[in-house]
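User: Reviewer 2 asked us to show a designed sequence for the structure in our supplementary figure. I'm pasting the structure tokens here. Could you produce the per-position amino acids so we can include them in the response letter?
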């Protein structure tokens, strides 16, 4: 399955763990099969929601291998290969490409950050090293820095850089990106609550946390909007907006894994430093799930 101008709902997969903290590959297989059966248009593994910062490179590779094996070309598989070390990002990108990834998600350098030229080289040198599409990942709330619009514009002309996951929540920034890039550069919402506003400026869909609990709904929202039924897309989006927001009442992926466990989806625990939600938040989330009709 090739990644080319992909439109729709791409789920940012959780990584299910056993109670001892090891990866639950049986649950991962079941979740992937469920996502595809529910109409998800693409799979992202090893994103923020997948807790990759707490996993070893060996575990990362095992999760990628199982994901590619189970999906078996039915939808594109995007792998998060980002690092704040450009050398590590290049190494992981080549490794996942060779394993069969359809595309890569590259993050801006966190903690050490970079000036604009260093930011440009961080992405461009990685994209130079592979031959599959790369997506930029702008999430300043996690990284402490935003990719400058001028850098995105320059990178958008790179033949292997296909788009951006925009997760700043800043519509002004997103509009500047939409204004300066060409029609072949995809813009994906990284925030479920503003998927429709972002698609209104030319976005291709969403890389979604919400899709872990409501994959069919998330797919239909994007499909309706892109298919011209914008009134139904808006009505559905507003119906589930509280749930989308409550999945971020604590740091992601704590709420979404908690929700999945409440739904019997066997996401398992988080790895430290992430831990279980407060009882008050669990009660509130459970009530929201009931109101949304998924519990």
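Assistant: Here is a per-position design you can include in the supplement:
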């Amino acid at each position: 399955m090739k990644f080319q101008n992909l439109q729709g709902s791409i789920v940012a997969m959780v990584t299910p763990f056993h109670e001892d903290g090891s990866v639950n590959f049986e649950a991962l297989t079941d979740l992937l099969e469920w996502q595809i059966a529910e109409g998800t248009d693409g799979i992202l593994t090893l994103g923020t929601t997948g807790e990759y910062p707490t996993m070893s490179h060996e575990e990362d590779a095992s999760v990628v291998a199982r994901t590619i094996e189970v999906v078996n070309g039915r939808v594109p598989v995007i792998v998060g290969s980002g690092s704040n070390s450009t050398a590590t990002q290049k190494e992981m990108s080549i490794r996942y490409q060779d394993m069969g990834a359809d595309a890569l998600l590259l993050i801006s350098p966190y903690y050490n950050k970079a000036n604009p030229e260093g930011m440009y080289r961080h992405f461009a040198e990685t994209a130079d090293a592979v031959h599959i599409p790369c997506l930029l990942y702008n999430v300043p709330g996690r990284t402490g820095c935003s990719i400058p619009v001028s850098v995105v514009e320059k990178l958008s002309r790179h033949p292997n850089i296909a788009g951006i996951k925009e997760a700043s929540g800043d519509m002004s920034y997103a509009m500047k990106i939409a204004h300066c890039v060409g029609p072949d550069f995809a813009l994906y919402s990284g925030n479920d609550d503003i998927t429709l506003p972002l698609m209104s400026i030319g976005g291709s869909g969403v890389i979604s946390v919400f899709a872990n609990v409501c994959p069919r709904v998330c797919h239909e929202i994007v499909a309706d909007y892109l298919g011209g039924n914008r009134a139904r897309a808006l009505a559905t989006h507003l119906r589930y907006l509280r749930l989308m927001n409550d999945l971020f009442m604590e740091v992601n992926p704590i709420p979404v894994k908690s929700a999945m466990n409440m739904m019997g989806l066997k996401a398992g625990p988080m790895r430290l430093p992430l831990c279980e939600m407060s009882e008050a938040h669990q009660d509130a989330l459970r009530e929201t799930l009931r109101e949304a009709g998924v519990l």
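For the response letter, you might also mention the following. The beta strands are 8-12, 42-45, 77-80, 103-107, 134-138, 161-166, 186-189, 205-208. Residues 57-71 form the longest helix (15 residues).
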